Amino acid sequence: MSTRSTRSFFAPGVALTLLLAAGTLSAASKKDPPKPTVDECLACHSDATLSHEVNGKTVSLHVDPQAFKDSIHGSMFTCVDCHTDVKSAAHETTPKRITCATCHADEQAAYDRSFHAKAVKDGNGNAATCVDCHGSPHELLPAGDPKSRVNHHNIPATCGSCHSQKFVMDGSGLRVQTVASYEQSVHGHAVANGSDKAAVCTDCHGTHEILDARDSKSPIFKFNVPLTCGKCHDQISKEFQQSIHGQAISRANWQAPVCTDCHGIHSIKAHTDPNSPVSAQNVAQVTCARCHEGVRLSQEFGVEGRRATTYLASYHGLASRLGSQVVANCASCHGTHSIFPSSDPRSTIHPSNLARTCGQCHPGVTEKFVAAKVHVDAPLSADIGSKAVRWIRKFYLSMIFAVIGGMLLHNFIIWRAKVIARRKLEHGFVVRMPLHFRWQHAALLSSFILLVLTGFALKFPDSWFASMLSLGEHMRRLLHRIAAVVLIGVSLYHFLHVLVTKEGRQLARDLFPTLDDALGAWQNLSYYLGLSRSKPEFARFNYAEKAEYWALVWGMFVMAGTGVMLWAKIFFGNHLPRWWLDVATAIHYYEAVLATLAIVVWHFYQVFLDPDVYPMNWAWWDGKMSLHHYRDEHGLDPHPVLAPAADEESESVTEESEATEVKHGD
């Protein structure tokens, strides 16, 4: 075949091939153009000013090229792997919002069940989402990177960015104090010092599926706490689960303690820290006492109550309260995590183990020694030692009452006779307090003392005087109000007496303070400090008596006003802002403290402790004051009211005493 023929033979095939090729190129030209590369996207998005308005808010579209390159996504994916709807670099429509669930379906499903997701669903715009914890997808780093927001060391700060901000947590029912508490805890300090093992938020609460503590699936649900803590403290967790507390938890007993009940939750501290609830000083008085002091366990499970009280009454407890660091506490005898009932052979207080337990502090102890009671006030059993202690107690209580009571009676008889004899030797009296003033004073004194006792008994229910009264709240409240009515009544009577009687008005004039009182106070102190040789003289009332009287008037108005507000709290609470009652409570309390101390320090000195009036100023009893003492204290009073002589004997004694005074130059 010739060349020409050959060409003629192949010509139609070549034409067909060219035709097919042309069709293929034409079809290819109709397909989508190549998707944009990362560099093409960053050509625009690397601009720091690039932004877009979404629902009225300006959203930055800037992507840091280097940060994206260093991120976990930048090293594995391109932009369009996530933004799949972007077909070209010059896209005209806003890309759809991407979701992490596309790649992280399991994590998203766990998050959807979490406390955070439910809060978002309920409309809480502050609840955490993926980017709040992990950071922007364009800058997201692997958890192993020290700069990652979810790196072990950074977890507390990441969670704290929300949980330490009050405005973020408002309405969530959660407290912001937890972050600060964690930072001060043994875990927080360890993490801050670089520990890779100390627990952070996610170790206890979980990562994506963070659940409410009331959810039975939550790792911080009460019955799950031992297992959660056991992830780090495995051996201790196993010991606890075998203990009486752990067995009670396994039976779903809500009253049994778990790790957080004793150690705390976020503010867990080392047992050597004095502020730790498991420190030597706090174990008995605070931690164990919360359950073992009351009667609840006794009623429900037959466990004896008052364990803290009876321990604190023993030598161990007393020494602990005095600050001993080595004396035995609850954990020293009962153990810490592996606590068993005394009937269990594994228990450190089982009879067969007591010698070894006590021997830790008392080497060489025998079975006889360990038979003594530790909880000294525990109900006495029928053994011989208990019977002996019971009879000794009764004997000495009877002896104390009889002997000391007899001593008091003996001394009172002699004291009374000597006081009467000394009173008879005094000559000439001035009527200091007429009978109706003495009645006012008696009512004032008795009601004031009753108010003090019943008022402070409420403020300090564990005090000795509250125990002494043993009134119960109903009787205490009733007596307090009766005393208040008496005090207000006698005050009103005195006020009316001052207004309507000549005697009362003269009393007010004599008690009215003047500038001379300030001068008299300075002169009096100068005399008793040895700075002046002349003792100042005063009229009917000196500066101290005037100050006390007007302080009483002021205190009466304040205490009566605030007391009535608190008595009628419903009325005043409905007509005034609620904080008025809080203010009234504060004023009522502090004014009561001030008044009580003023009476004890100031008034009682004038009546009982002043050597010039020993054993007391009898004016409150019989209204009289010796003429000699009155002239010494109130020499400027021109018209003292002299009391009539009781009989001829007293008159002769007066004349004899006056003659003696003249003879000696008095």
Describe, in plain words, how this protein is organized in 3D.
With 666 residues, the protein is an all-alpha fold. It is built from 35 helices and five strands. A hairpin with a 2-residue loop joins strand 1 (51-54) and strand 2 (57-60). Helix 30 (543-567) packs across helix 31 and helix 30 (543-567) packs antiparallel against helix 32. The N and C termini lie far apart (174 Å).
Q: Keywords for this structure?
A:
single chain, two-stranded antiparallel sheet, mainly alpha, 35 helices, three-stranded antiparallel beta sheet, about 675 residues
Secondary-structure map:
Elements: H1 3-29, H2 38-45, E1 51-54, E2 57-60, H3 65-70, H4 79-82, H5 105-112, H6 115-121, H7 130-134, H8 155-163, H9 166-169, H10 177-183, H11 186-192, H12 201-205, H13 225-230, H14 234-242, H15 244-250, H16 259-263, H17 282-287, H18 289-292, H19 296-301, H20 307-312, H21 315-321, H22 330-334, H23 354-359, H24 384-425, E3 429-431, H25 435-459, H26 464-469, H27 473-500, H28 502-511, H29 515-528, H30 543-567, H31 569-575, H32 579-609, H33 619-622, E4 624-626, H34 627-633, E5 642-643, H35 648-663
Antiparallel strand pairs: 1-2, 3-4, 3-5
Helix pairs in contact: 8-10, 14-15, 25-27, 27-28, 27-30, 30-31, 30-32
